[in-house]
Design a protein that fits this description.
By secondary structure, the protein is α+β, with helices and mostly antiparallel strands. Helices cover 44% and strands 18% of the residues. The radius of gyration is 14 Å and the shape is globular.
Length: 110
């Protein structure tokens, strides 16, 4: 049995006004956010992209009730993390899928 290889992509991001869970107060703050993205190297682009997207969204989401401004900050944070992760993965098919998705949920963030 062949075990699929998992490749972690660690990103360190300075989250400013785009926000991070501890930086989602009404006044913009800067917080260091370290996120590790793990994906199967041989997986289809759609699977890798879905994993990256979920990890970015979860890393930027704060718990509890959030204002509209905080929700927008979370989306911008996730978009920035996802942009960085897609670049670091370095696969053309994942990058193309990301470009196609830019008109979707992350287009209006930030």
């Amino acid at each position: 049995m062949i075990t699929p290889k998992l490749l972690p992509v660690a990103l360190l991001m300075m989250a400013g006004a785009t926000g991070a869970p501890s930086a989602l107060a009404e006044a913009p703050a800067t917080t260091e956010l370290k996120v590790e993205f793990t994906y199967q190297t041989g997986a289809p682009a759609s699977v890798i992209y879905a994993d990256l997207e979920r990890t970015a969204r979860d890393a930027c989401r704060a718990s509890g009730t959030r204002s509209l401004r905080q929700q927008l900050q979370e989306k911008a944070c996730a978009r920035d993390l996802l942009n960085s992760a897609v670049t670091r993965v370095g696969r053309a098919d994942v990058a193309q899928l990301h470009q196609n998705q830019l008109s979707g949920p992350y287009a209006s963030a930030g």
